[in-house]
Specification:
The protein is mainly α and 264 residues long. It has helices at residues 13-17, 23-35, 38-47, 54-70, 73-89, 105-126, 132-148, 158-166, 175-185, 194-207, 210-215, 226-245, 247-260; strands at 91-93, 99-101.
Length: 264
């Protein structure tokens, strides 16, 4: 019986990488990098629910990545269609006076680069560690997803994705970016979740370019603190990995990501 493996499938690097608990940190890093861009920060502030519920923005990112990675073709196409529909409604003028649209190719490329580069950055520190050829293969796999969203020339290797984020043009501090970054730092979570989330957030800030953390008004993770943050985060993620590494639990993990968050 032929199975529908969707856009990527179990033979992809993304299949393994996106199932890693390290992606919890990678996802937060990607969102913070996006807020570093003045047009994206303005768009999120004007068109997103982040100001009322920043946690939901994070869930939406998890939902999309999980659907295109583990979903069948119909589920992946539905997730892609939702994103394209949202993009059609997002346009305006950012805090620097520049017009923007979510369908602008440079903005699409930048958002895509934040996702793939953050996944690789988190994996470099917390695993699964990838060989250089696997890193480039992962970026090439994700380029197929970007093309389905309308990006005609997505980065196809790790260096190209990093270069899009490192480019200084268009990046810098804005009031909207700082305000939204602090909303992500202190989201309305139950008290029992805040220590765990706080550690994940600190680990995401640790993986940011230093000028990005400073521009967003966040306290960079200095060298003397970094070993504590990384050791604590590694222990947290290792515990999570042990839980989801058991096959039935892994299915639950993916099902939560694919079903609970999808459509929110």
């Amino acid at each position: 019986m032929q199975t529908d493996d969707g856009v990527l499938g179990p033979g992809s690097v993304a299949w393994e990488l996106h199932g890693s608990p390290a992606m919890l940190t990678g996802g937060l890093r990607a969102l913070l990098l996006q807020l570093w861009h003045p047009s994206i920060a303005s768009a999120v502030a004007a068109h997103s629910e982040v100001a009322r519920n920043p946690w939901r923005r994070y869930q939406a990112t998890v939902a999309f990545v999980a659907s295109v990675t583990y979903g069948d073709t119909d589920e992946a196409n539905a997730a892609l269609a939702r994103v394209r529909a949202v993009h059609e409604t997002v346009r305006g003028v950012d805090s620097t006076g520049a017009p923007y649209s979510a369908n602008d190719l440079p903005l699409l490329a930048y958002v895509h680069a934040t996702l793939v580069d953050s996944a690789l950055a988190a994996a470099d520190v917390y695993g699964p560690r990838l060989a250089p050829a696997e890193r480039d293969r992962y970026v090439a796999e994700m380029a197929r997803v970007a093309e389905l969203l309308g990006l005609d020339e997505p980065p196809r290797d790790a260096a190209a994705a990093r270069a899009l984020i490192s480019a200084p043009n268009g990046l810098g501090p804005t009031r909207a970016g700082r305000d939204l970054a602090w909303l992500l730092a202190l989201p309305p979570l139950p008290l029992w979740m805040r220590p765990t989330y706080g550690l994940l957030f600190a680990s995401a800030v640790d993986l940011l370019p230093r000028d990005c953390a400073v521009d967003l008004g966040l306290l960079p993770v200095w060298g003397v603190v970094r070993p504590v943050v990384r050791t604590s985060t590694a222990a947290l993620l290792q515990t999570t990995s042990a839980a989801i590494g058991w096959r039935p639990a892994r299915r639950v993990w993916r099902r939560v990501a694919r079903r609970t968050f999808a459509g929110r």
